[in-house]
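Sample intake — Exonuclease domain-containing protein
Collected from: Cladophialophora chaetospira
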Amino acid sequence: MSVTKDDRFSGAFPATPAYLETLHSMCHGPATLSGRQYQLEASPSARIEARLKCSRCLQRIWDRPEAPLVKFDSQQLDPNELKATAENDRTAITLDEKRPICFYHVGKIVRPNDSGKSVWTCCDKYAGSRGCVEKPTHTIPPPNDPALSDYWRFYPTPTPAPVTPKPENSKKGRKTKRYISLADFESRKQYHRKAVALDCEMGTSSTTWPEMIRVTIIDYFTGEVLMNKLVEPSMPMRSMNTAYGSGVSWKDMKNAIRDGNYYRGAAAVREELFKFVSPETIVVTHSGHNDLNVMRWIHPLVVDTQIVHRSRNPRGLADLAADYCGIYIQNSAKGHCSLEDALATREVMHSMVRERMKNPSRVASLMEALLLDTAEDDQIDVEETNFADDETAVEETNSMKDELDGNFDEDSISSA
């Protein structure tokens, strides 16, 4: 662990009670986090059903609510081509079941030396072309598939219990994993930070979902780099998104794995993360729902610079860093850097806190509302998300519901 020597970024911030209280008052309530695509439940079945895709063509199956019924004039249709079924008093009319609906490729995408465009090895068609293999049905995994449930399970920040269990309550006198000794508990508490800033870089998995490939965690007050490594994907990858955002290449990943300087999947990231973060730690992010979602992490105290910034339209981190701090980032042609982005997020949040501290009465009222944890403070938090007025709030809420990829905002990933 070390402190970055980049002259663009500040050193330590004053961890005074007033500063910490102000930062705490800017954390968002459950209603705001949920509305901004943060996950607050560990494993709801609705999350899995909303992400079911055909394992061949990767088309989302339950993408939208069921469309309203439309009355058809059966005399206008050829009865030999139709089949009607009734279920729950609803009638579905489908065309010939033999008509192919699933199109997919069986090869890989490569870029030949004599062509600037990527093609499929199975048919030599350009990447993005319609699949060369046709099937009359989709291949859909069951919603109760254990592997699918495990992949989409989220984990809240744990609170270790300072208890040593009695021998009779454990197997053969061994301590259970649920508890740690009081000495270990006190030692671990020393490493828990008051606040951290984080950023993740993401690639695209074979199922087209974002997959974490790099993570950076820094101590918000000291600027100490706590975690900064590549992350081995937990499933096959379609693209590393090197030039379009992640800055991580296939070669970088292979070298990191060869040298042993990497985290093996999101589970390893969380295991290391929880050494520094407790439920009382404030997590500072920018468009952090993308980061926490790929980490499969639920945390109660989050402050998101994109939410705090008062704007009708979400703004990228580079714009906020330039406007608030005069710092210019993400200028490399090689893509983003999670360390640079985490440091920039920290700087932007510091500027926002200093502005907020100029109005102590506002801080006190927000802090009181946050601690009450009632429906009223959720409303205050919505106001704190910087919607300019009620009409804007409705527009933003509707736009969130229209996002195609559920809890992953691909646009904000590219602008983060």
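Post-analysis note: The longest helix spans residues 338-357.
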